[in-house]
Amino acid sequence: MIDLHYWTTPNGHKITLLLEETGLPYRIVPVHIGKGEQFQPEFLRIAPNNRIPAIVDHAPADDGEPISLFESGAILLYLADKTGQFIPQDLRGRNLALQWLFWQMGGLGPMAGQNHHFTQYAPEPIPYAVERYVKETARLYAVLNRQLADGREYIAGGYSIADMACYPWIVPHERQRQRLQDFPHLAVWFERVRQRPATVRAYARAQEVNSAPVVDEASKRILFGQNAATVQ
Questions:
Q1: What pLDDT score does 64 carry?
Q2: Given this model, what pLDDT does residue 182 score?
Q3: Within a domain: residue 200?
Q4: 149: in domain
């Protein structure tokens, strides 16, 4: 059994996508980040960066004590290796998938995240910041569009954790001020992933946990008011 400490964010969705694809038994432990539940001591023991998602695997491959992991990319790789699924087993294929996984972790996610912040949540509009992150999001969409332009169905060949990492960050494309029709190969890929039965199930689980996401002033103070003192 996998305990998934989760909230309905793109990084959270990555893990439900993989768990639904693999069929591993799992239990969702909601962590309401808008209420500050990510700062509870029991959560910090498994996720010292006070961010979701995190997992606890109660049946690790070494038959030892339960193992906990934080950081969505590390979790995806761990679960793919655990099951032998959605990560190529050959040297070149595996490293192609890992490159795109790390591309998402280091580029698409952080840049789209800043896009979300400055276009939706900043207390006052900052035109330079909005333009900077909307343009950078578009550039990253174009990079992914080019990767998919050779007719491949998925980012690294077969469906893999690279696709699962990227897809949830493309779902809110309209809020990111992006038009999928400007990226035709990406648009085809997006629809292909969207229609996968496991994708449908994963997003249905999200509705069970948080059917009406709200970011009010109180939650903004929690989500965007952190500094070194909140860690110490």
A1: 96
A2: 98
A3: no
A4: yes
| pLDDT surpasses 80 at 214 | no
For residues 34-62, average pLDDT: 95
pTM: 0.95
Half-sphere exposure of 212 (CA within 13 A, CB side): 1
Long-range contacts of 117-126 (CB under 8 A, 24+ apart): 117/224, 119/175, 119/176, 119/177, 120/175, 120/215, 121/215, 121/220, 121/223, 121/224
Range of the domain at 141: 91-195
Q: What is residue 221's predicted lDDT score, i.e. its pLDDT?
A: 86
Q: For residue 5, which of 60, 64, 61, 72 has the smallest C-alpha distance?
A: 72
Same-domain pairing of 118 and 168 = yes
**CA 87 to CA 80: how far, in whole Å?**
6
Task: Please indicate, yes or no, if residue 201 is contained in any of the structural domains.
Answer: no
- Distance separating alpha carbons of residues 152 and 150, to the nearest angstrom: 6
Question: 54-57 and 26-30: which strand pairing?
Answer: unpaired
User: Are residues 137 and 79 part of one domain?
Assistant: no
Phi, psi of 230 (to 5 degrees): -70, -25
Judging by DSSP bridges, how do beta strands 67-70 and 54-57 pair with one another? antiparallel
Give the span between the Cα atoms of 40 and 48, in whole angstroms. 10
Residues 97 and 186 in one domain: yes
Q: State the pLDDT at residue 217.
A: 85
Q: How many domains does the chain have?
A: 2
**CA neighbor of 109 nearest in space, from 167, 51, 169:** 169
Average pLDDT, the chain: 96
Average pLDDT over residues 206-214: 87
